[in-house]
Amino acid sequence: MSEVSVVSFKSYPESVAKAFDQIGAAAMMGRQKRVMIKPNLVDVIPYPVTTPVECTSAIIDYVRRAGSAEIVIAEGSGGEKPTGEVFASLGYSELAAEKQVRLIDLNEQPLIKSEIPSCKIFSSYYLPRLAMEYFIISVPMLKAHTLSTVTLSLKNMMGFAPPSHYQMGGFWKKSFFHNRIDESIIEMNMHRMPDLTLIDATIGMPEYHLGGSHCDPPVNKIVASFNAVEADRVGARLLGFDWKEIGHLAEEIVCASPQRGREC
Asked: Could you write out the DSSP letters of every residue in the chain?
């Protein structure tokens, strides 16, 4: 089995299944009672800024074939629009009805406080209780970012951060992270890292995470791994970056709640 699978894109059903099969994901999925799919739906902006419903649909089908009991789709939008409006505008409300899965607004969930005294920024970190109760599949898009160089699986976990604690002025609901973004990405993933990553690298955005040019030619890949750090390093290379020069990718991250082999 590969630690990181990189497959050429043909269709979401075929390529998602192939990428997951290459890392042995079906066996892990078959042991799960609760699976949370976390797309990147930062605001009401279409693909390739946000994760398309076709990709998420293919993941739902794969997880169901493997035998997992409950599947939910969860996001906490970071932009001006509320998460419910983002779900509706980007087709996720229709997908949820079609696939009979529940949509969860992470910005409005009961919280727990996770403690890691060694952290410099988030020695105490608030996040939804559900984050510790589900096996999390992070599904980011392949994009550059103006502050963190890339925005991939690790940064996608910012959707779990509640605006009640991390919105510091303006309309960006997670603006607290922007000041020391690389350190913040590392530390929030020390509290909770995704259990499984699938990067939609079908197009790629090499300049800016909310717009700008697309990779030409398109990257045309799907990336999957149980190791979010290694998946993101591959994603950085696909965008033409040296991951050793990206603050949050240049070191290993040790999560306080280890994911490998986790059952939820």
From this structure: --SEEEEE-S-HHHHHHHHHHHTTHHHHHTT-SEEEEEE---SS--TTSS--HHHHHHHHHHHHHHT-SEEEEEE---SSS-HHHHHHHTTHHHHHHHHT-EEEEGGGS-EEEEE-TT-SS-SEEEEEGGGGTSEEEEE-EEEEETTTEEESHHHHGGGGS-HHHH--SSS-TTGGGGTTHHHHHHHHHHH---SEEEEEEEEEESSBTTBS---SS---EEEEES-HHHHHHHHHHHTT--GGGSTTTSS----SS--TT---
Let me know: does 137 contact 198? Beta carbons within 8 Å.
yes
Distance, in Å, from the CA atom of 168 to the CA atom of 174, rounded to the nearest integer, reads: 8
Residues in the chain: 264
**Structure tokens, 150:** 């890339």
- CA 140, 145, 149, 155 torsion: positive or negative? negative
Lowest mean pLDDT of 94-98, 159-163, 170-174, name the range. Answer: 170-174
d(CA 25, CA 232): 18
pTM (two decimals): 0.95
Amino acid at 84: G
Could you read off the pLDDT of 211-260 as tens digits, one per residue? Answer: 889 999 999 999 999 999 999 999 999 999 999 999 999 988 888 766 55
CATH of 11-135+152-208+235-245, one of 3.40.50, 3.30.1890, 3.30.70, 1.10.150: 3.40.50
Euclidean distance between CA atoms 71 and 37, whole angstroms: 7
2-17 average pLDDT score = 96
For the chain, the structural domain boundaries read 11-135+152-208+235-245
